[in-house]
TrEMBL record:
Keywords tagged on the record: ATP-binding, Cytoplasm, Ligase, Nucleotide-binding, tRNA processing
E.C. designation(s): 6.3.4.19
Pfam families: ATP_bind_3, TilS_C
The protein's name in its UniProt record: tRNA(Ile)-lysidine synthase
Known role: Ligates lysine onto the cytidine present at position 34 of the AUA codon-specific tRNA(Ile) that contains the anticodon CAU, in an ATP-dependent manner. Cytidine is converted to lysidine, thus changing the amino acid specificity of the tRNA from methionine to isoleucine.
Location of the protein in the cell: Cytoplasm
Residue numbers binding ATP: 25-30
Lysidine-tRNA(Ile) synthetase C-terminal domain: residues covered: 383-455
Record text about domains: The N-terminal region contains the highly conserved SGGXDS motif, predicted to be a P-loop motif involved in ATP binding.
Organism (species): Halobacillus naozhouensis
Top-level enzyme category: ligase
InterPro entries: Lysidine-tRNA-synth_C (IPR012796), Rossmann-like_a/b/a_fold (IPR014729), TilS/TtcA_N (IPR011063), tRNA_Ile_lys_synt (IPR012094), tRNA_Ile_lys_synt_N (IPR012795)
UniProt catalytic activity: cytidine(34) in tRNA(Ile2) + L-lysine + ATP = lysidine(34) in tRNA(Ile2) + AMP + diphosphate + H(+)
């Protein structure tokens, strides 16, 4: 088993003085693992704890397997913790499949034991044949290369990490190990049922591939490690891309970014970032988000239409407005149409929380697009602050004639979802004086009056 020792050292799976929890089912793989690690106990000063779960799926037979693991652990002077779980009840509660329910309950118990014994490592007996089957199934189910990555050699779990020291071995090597050390094991008859996808792959698919390439397991394990290394690098780069985006962690999380900036990155990095965004918004990668959704998303980024919308699973929306893309579970709350009267000396609050003030002044200097000054005799009071209406036109300063407010929104690339509640100011005759922040109407500062009208707009959310 020198190959296993080298594999452990290469991936730094074990350290001296650790508490190692070993998942044991009673089959040859897990018993070989328990035996092997128990041989390291003295030289590495390890504390070995065997943990076994009876899923209750095979009646008295599966319970006997648990009792057998307990008996063998005692003979090998290994601590033992076991339990029986109700897979059928859990399956009814969650609506998942039998194997998914069994796995969830099994790993939940493993985590409990890790916490109980303050375990550093949870060791599983998956071997190279398991890895090859996993990767072939992933290849059939997904077109995303990063999804064909197999089982990790190690990953964080509970207080420590989960490890798979036998991924470098084939099933036949473990059977020979059991024979050499006279280890009697139990066989689960359900492993022969081809109703389960993995068993069907094991029986019908893998023998053909291994005939074509006897070193298939080794090659796929190396492929798994390289894919994971490459993906880890891509994800680290994608995290930096995410930092350039606007992200909300509040009740309704969203991600917003510039298409122009996003498309400057290589396509592989764009794809990885897209899936990190989904992980962030969903909390985990949804299986329902297929490569078709990904293709439509990127088509939305490249098409000529300035405004577009895409629906993803579970109510997630992708909303494009010119150069801006927003991913959110709900559209922006739109206050809708409003009309408010504004008297000189007053301040009014608009539905989105912004404010508009009106006052007399002798100063004719406008600081920015959010301040408007005109001669008092150019307007008929009181003023009206409202949203746009069909056919609205404004006569911009320095321009002959008038222009549709709708065309100004288009020219200024105002997102569609913001146009309906964009404020404008008119006098009491309906003449549009100011399309706030965009255009100012009329040559209103050329008169000789000492008294002028000043309007100021401020969005209090930006202060």
């Amino acid at each position: 088993m020198q190959v296993v020792q080298s594999f452990i050292e290469k991936h730094q799976l074990l350290q001296a003085n650790q508490t190692v929890v070993v998942a044991v089912s009673g089959g040859p793989d897990s018993l070989a693992l328990l035996h092997y690690l128990n041989q390291l106990k003295a030289t590495m000063n390890l504390r070995i704890v065997a943990v076994s779960v009876d899923h209750g799926l095979r009646g008295e037979t599966s319970l006997e397997d648990l009792r057998y693991v307990e008996k063998l652990s005692a003979e090998w002077e290994v601590e033992f913790v076991g339990t029986t779980v109700d897979v059928h009840s859990y399956k009814e509660q969650t609506g998942g499949g039998t194997q998914e329910a069994a796995r969830a309950l099994r790993y939940h118990f493993f985590e409990q034991v890790m916490n109980q014994v303050e375990g550093d490592v949870l060791a599983l007996g998956h071997h190279g044949d398991d890895q090859a089957e996993t990767m072939m199934m992933q290849m059939v189910r997904s077109v995303r290369p990063e999804s064909v990555r197999g089982m990790p050699v190690s990953r964080p779990f509970s207080l420590g990490k989960l490890i798979r020291p036998f991924l470098c071995l084939e099933k036949e090597e473990l059977l020979r190990y059991c024979a050499l050390h006279k280890i009697t094991y139990k066989l689960d008859e359900t492993n022969q049922h081809t109703d389960y996808t993995r068993n069907a792959f094991r029986k019908y698919v893998m023998p053909f591939f291994k005939e074509q390439n006897p070193k298939l397991n080794k090659h796929l394990q190396l492929m798994s490690e390289r894919v994971r290394d490459n993906q880890q690098y891509l994800e680290s780069q994608a995290e930096q891309v995410l930092e350039t985006m606007e992200m909300s962690y509040k009740n309704e999380p969203f991600v917003k970014f510039s298409i122009r900036c996003f498309l400057t990155h290589p396509l592989a990095l764009q794809r990885t970032t897209f899936h990190l965004i989904l992980n962030y918004l969903y909390g985990y990668q949804k299986e329902e988000v297929s490569y078709m959704h990904e293709e439509v998303f990127f088509k939305l980024l490249h098409e000529d239409k300035p405004n577009a919308e895409l629906n993803l699973p579970n109510g997630l929306k992708v909303i494009r407005s010119y150069d801006e893309v927003r991913l959110t579970f709900s559209k922006l709350n739109q206050p809708g149409a409003f009309t408010k009267t504004l008297y000189i000396g007053d301040t009014i609050e608009l539905p989105d929380g912004s404010i508009v003030t009106a006052e007399w002044t002798t100063d004719d200097r406008e600081l920015d697009l959010f301040e408007y000054i005109c001669d008092s005799y150019h307007v008929k009071l009181p003023l009206i602050v409202r949203t746009r209406r069909p056919g609205d036109r404004i006569s911009p300063r320095g321009m002959d004639g008038s222009k549709k407010v709708k065309d100004i929104f288009i020219d200024q690339k105002v997102p569609t979802d913001r146009r309906e509640d964009w404020p404008l100011v008119t006098d009491s005759d309906g003449h549009i004086l100011w399309l706030v922040g965009l255009k100012k109407g009329g040559d209103c500062v050329n008169g000789k009056s000492d008294t002028r009208l000043r309007l100021q707009y401020k969005n209090i959310r930006d202060t």
